[in-house]
Design brief:
Blueprint (H helix, E strand, L loop, with lengths): L14 H13 L1 H19 L6 H15 L4 H18 L2 H17 L3 H9 L8 H21 L3 H21 L10 H8 L3 H14 L5 H17 L2 H17 L6 H13 L2 H18 L2 H54 L2 H73 L3 H9 L2 H21 L3 H7 L17 H10 L5 H8 L3 H12 L8 H6 L3
Amino acid sequence: MLVLSWPATGGAAPLDSLLRVLDEAIASHREYAGRREKQIELLGRQLRAPGLSDERRYQLTNRLYELYEPYICDSAIACLNRNIELADAMGAPRLRTESRIRLSFLLASTGMYMEASDVLHEVERSGLDSAQAVSYFSAYVRVYDELYGNTQDLRLKRRYRMLAEQYRDSARLYDASEPDPSRQPGEVELLNAGRLEEALRQNDLRLKHVQPDTREQAVAYHLRSLICHQMGRDEEYRCCLARSATADIRAAVQDHVSLLLLAQALFKDGDLERAYRYMDFSWSQTSSFNARLRVLQSVGGLSLIEDAYQMMLSRRNTLLTDYTLFSSLLLLLLVLALFCIWRQVKKLALARRRLQEANDSLHTLNERLHAMNSDLQTANLQLREANAVKENYLARFIKLCSTYVDRLDAYRRMVANKLVAGQTAELLKMARTPSAMDEALDELYANFDAVFLHIFPDFVERFNDLLRPGEQIQPKAVGQLCTELRIFALIRLGITDSSQIAEFLHYSVNTIYNYRAKVKNKARCRDCFEEDVARIG
């Protein structure tokens, strides 16, 4: 707590100390989450009490939303939707508008931009008072600020920035008193305008008024980290992220943006072990929070850090193996030396007995070494197979991406030409024709078949060996797989969930279940059939 309350203007605490505090907070995160869950449980019991009026139920549900909002996204959305229903039942348009604006803020913050925009479209602007108008326009600012920050298209980026500024100006027109704190106008606007020193001073004022270990403190330090990053203060940037992440954990916030950024920064610094640990914790918390935007933001960093971390572990294991072999050699030399000394001082019978014991020990060591070598060979084969799969699929994926980019560009030019020529009817006809989708799927499946059969050339033969005589399944052509073979090819690659297989093959889940059951009924051993398929080399 002393580290977190260190004044920002008085100098940054050493990063190592802040990281140790963060590690302790992560180790105790269940304790902080338990406090929030107790509050949620208490409110849930109050809501289940009989005889509650709609107004009282609205108030309790609103408090429940405030507890869920940084903790579980789906539950927070459900609370706001319930409050909209209660406001409709009470005939309270102001409360309905308030809940819809809050819902749009939450949807925009978690990556559901279309849904947030749809909710705002349902708000009747004519009935808004000044305070609600500020919140209404601020919600649009949040939507377009988020879109601006997460799109890669420069044209759209400029459009979203312009729309955000227009709505921000509209909010200012209605904001006659203090600005709405939910918009964070000070630092954000100054940061966007490039006035970094002023933004830093504004953040100093904010930090003086926030309570420690609260979400407000986490937000304040996160904004400060963005300012320091723009100013090139890398050390202070990491310190602010550590403070923000610690405050998030102690406040039982599961939306860990600061921890994710800190893990990426530590990865660049070469601290792979800590970066992997933070990213893994952030991923688990983000999955519990269940916001698709945070999940997508975490996937790339998690994959990159995990690959580097596994490489580091591999190097350590190799070094450990070398040390083990060297120690075994020293142990063997020591045994031989002792054997020579014992042979000089003992009688012949005693020497023979010692020699036999030494030979027994040597044989045991050899067996252990042989077992270790067998395990290492097995692991190497598995790594070689995994690397082959990754390399082949990566090459195919890059080629497919390039092909689809070229096709999309050609399609864009064709659409532009036809629009210029006024051939809208022909464009509509082309849009309604599924042939392009069918061709893309055929090409996807052809690439999948080619890569899979290149990696597992004997798959079809070994798969048919698992079936009863006369029940074999043959592909339509050489180098291709039929639907049944594709399903079990995906199972061989480790994709066993029927819903994922159905999504890839564009079938219903019931169809996939039927295919799997039909083929398993043809197997020599029905109960262990899929395990046997997964072991096909």
